[in-house]
Design goal:
- This protein is 34% helix and 15% strand.
- The protein has 397 residues and is an alpha+beta fold.
- The strands form 3 sheets. Strands 1, 6, 7, 8, 9, 10, 11 and 12 form an 8-stranded mixed beta sheet that branches. A two-stranded antiparallel sheet has the order 2-3. A two-stranded parallel sheet has the order 4-5.
- The chain is globular, with a radius of gyration of 20 Å.
- It is built from 14 helices and 12 strands.
- 59% of the residues are buried.
């Protein structure tokens, strides 16, 4: 249940393979990304922090860490937390880090904010034993699984563990989904008429030279995911991504799709490509603030969604702060802070059911389609990546 581990994807900021891993997809489906509750707490990692007779560095749960008071005390004693590749505008991480520091007085160092998941893994491996090594990571599932296989993570089950669905976490506690979103169509209504509503609608001749992806699907996760979603909308399946490639080849042939490695905020702003297919929460957080009236729609004829995952380094220099960070992220407060960044937190269903969701932030999300979400197997993902790698350039360019 993750992206294959051998293909080096790359996307600006958090790279492709790196940043989107559990690809949740549904032909005509909604994403209520995993079940959950909302609260906080957890434990686990490895280093050498201890509280009394409790070795926090090996604690695999909040109770094993001595409870919240003991964990907070141990984390405050460490006084710092090393995170990596968390852009301030990505899923509201700027606010999350600021609020965590304000609450606990723990300084956060964010290394390589514009890096990739692959670089996060490399940093964990190469900086092992150093005080500046990452304590925690936020990576795509391919990298989460890879790290677990290589024994890079410290098993830790947050207090709300039972509120994270089984298909969105490692049973051992090595990694667990945090937030995600849908592939969506963003457009500038001042330049795009009529309003697109689906992949099928994007074949309208009115959209000549208007449509872009963020990069090539052979190198960028979001672009690859757009091809997968397009496949589902055109008779494909989780085992057959080829219709997605043919769809974009057709869009190019009729002049609507502009294959480019520079599609993005700038080309939307300058009107070069006023229709941009990307993750819904990045369209909301990155494009909406700079393009007046920008609209976002999740295609009505197919949906494709995915999560990122959290993990604690097994050699975290600040193991108590690492566990406290996870407890904060999976608390009602942390989950709602991700939601305020237009990302869909893994415990969103629980927040809604419990009435603890930030109603304004929830209402601001692009409407999600109804229905069940299914996950491609690793074999299906591997096969899809191979097909795109072999055929995209030949068919689309």
């Amino acid at each position: 249940m993750a992206f294959a581990r051998h293909m080096a994807w790359a996307q600006e900021g958090k790279t492709l393979r790196g940043r989107y891993a559990i690809a949740a997809t549904a032909a005509i489906g909604s994403l209520v990304f995993a079940a959950g509750c909302s609260s906080s707490s957890s434990s686990g990692a490895s280093g050498s922090s201890s509280s009394g007779s409790t070795n926090v560095a090996t604690a695999s749960s909040l109770s094993a860490a001595g409870g919240m008071n003991a964990l907070v005390a141990a984390a405050k004693k460490e006084g710092q937390l090393n995170v990596i590749t968390l852009p301030a505008t990505w899923a509201n991480y700027g606010t999350i880090m600021k609020d965590f520091t304000a609450k606990y007085g723990i300084k956060i160092t964010d290394a390589n904010p514009e890096g990739s998941s692959g670089q996060e893994i490399t940093a964990v491996e190469q900086l092992k034993g150093q005080s500046r090594a990452p304590d925690v990571v936020d990576v795509g599932s391919a990298f989460a699984v890879e790290g677990a296989t290589d024994h890079l993570w410290a098993p830790y089950k947050v207090a709300t563990w039972n509120d994270i669905s089984a298909n969105a976490k490692d049973a051992n506690g090595d990694w667990y989904a945090d937030y995600g979103g849908y592939v969506a169509i963003g457009y500038n209504p001042a330049k795009v008429k009529p309003a697109p509503t689906s992949f099928a609608s994007l074949t309208n001749p009115a959209y000549k030279n208007m449509i872009a992806l963020n990069n090539s699907p052979t190198t960028a996760s979001a672009a690859f995911s757009a091809v997968y979603a397009a496949a589902l909308a055109n008779g494909g399946s989780l085992s057959n991504i080829e219709p997605g490639i043919k769809y974009f080849a057709h869009l190019k042939a009729i002049g609507n799709f502009v294959p480019t490695s520079t599609g993005g905020i700038t080309t939307v702003q300058n009107g070069t490509t006023p229709i941009f297919i990307w993750w819904d929460y990045l369209l909301a957080s990155e494009v909406v603030p700079v393009v007046k009236g920008f609209k976002i729609v999740i295609p009505s004829d197919a949906s494709y969604a995915a999560y990122y995952d959290q993990a604690i380094s097994a050699t975290a220099p600040d193991p108590a702060a690492a566990r406290l960070w996870e407890e904060y992220l999976y608390s009602t407060t942390g989950q709602n802070l991700w939601l305020e960044g237009f990302a869909r937190p893994v415990e969103l269903p629980t927040l809604v059911a419990a009435g603890t969701v930030n109603k304004g932030a929830y209402a601001a999300l692009p409407p999600a389609p109804s229905g069940a979400v299914t996950f491609p197997t690793e074999a299906q993902q591997n096969a899809a990546e191979a097909v795109v790698s072999a055929n995209w350039t030949k068919q689309v360019g």
